[in-house]
Amino acid sequence: MRKIFAVCAVACVFLALGCSPKKQADGGGAAGARGPQDLKIVLILPGPVNDQSWNAINYAGLEKCNATLGTKMEYVENVQAPDYESTFRNYAERGYDLIMAAGTQFDEAANKVAASYPNSVFCVVNGMVAQGNNVAPIFPREYEASYVAALIAGEVSPGGQFATIGGFPNNAMEKLLDVYEKVSVQTAKDRGISGARAVRAYANSWDDVSLGKQMAETMIGNGADTLFVYANQVGLGSIQAAREKGVKFIGFSGDQTTIAPETVVASVLFDFETFYVWAVEAFINGSLKGNTVHEAGIKENIFVPVYTPAVSQEIRDRVAAGVKKAVEGGVDFNSMFANP
Hints:
This protein is an alpha/beta fold and 340 residues long. The chain is built from 10 helices and 12 strands. It has 2 domains: 22-141 and 272-300, 3-Layer(aba) Sandwich (Rossmann fold); 142-270 and 303-336, 3-Layer(aba) Sandwich (Rossmann fold). The protein has helices at residues 2-17, 54-68, 84-93, 107-114, 142-156, 171-190, 209-221, 234-245, 272-285, 313-327; strands at 41-44, 74-76, 98-102, 121-125, 138-140, 161-166, 197-202, 226-230, 248-253, 264-270, 294-296, 303-307.
């Protein structure tokens, strides 16, 4: 009788969730045998949850999952590179079902550790490497988000002098900056700015605020009038420099208009609340398969432009038209990559 009651209870949980109980496919733990509240899930973050950028939006995704799915996802912040492997092992040893980590930089450690813990699923957000049945990264097509940012930048830049700073020159970063630079310059030229151009630099850091300010000051000194930075806390220093020098800044990943509305005239917000719920639901119902990079982007509505009053309705309408064109398949992103 106890066995019959237990089976009925599990079935009721999944009927309430609107999904049938399934075993996690491809070596991913038995997520389907328990309710979301019983799963052990953790998110590993490389920086603080209050950075108003990458770590903050990932933490927002965690909070949304807990609020809407009933999970009890935990997190650990400020995990540095020498501790990646040991942190993964710590949670795997403790039997965590889903171990998430925010950032491409976790790819190598996740794939290495996962081989020893087949009962845990390792999911790197922004991950690009899936070398095991229990490795299932999720990847927002960030170059689609930088396309939206470029449409805005190309319209608001006074002289078409664009400067970009990336955290590290990995493949994903290079692609999103390729798209941003090509689209922003072309948009400015379409406005009649024949001398529009873009310059790029890498900070080789995610958290050096003072370096971000120094690099931005140098770029502004060389004529840049519009900055775009994707380097977590490095970007905070760049925003400070832009504010002091009176140039425009296009925010990225988080809503950075709240930091300095007179400087950050617009941001492209990553709706990681939607992104995380999508991914964790996939884990729960067994469709977050290993050996696969799971992607989402403009069509899934995870990139949202946020404007200040400095951006006119006419510009917003033109950006919306450009986004619609991309959603309908009218933009060839592959042709914009320097290294397809």
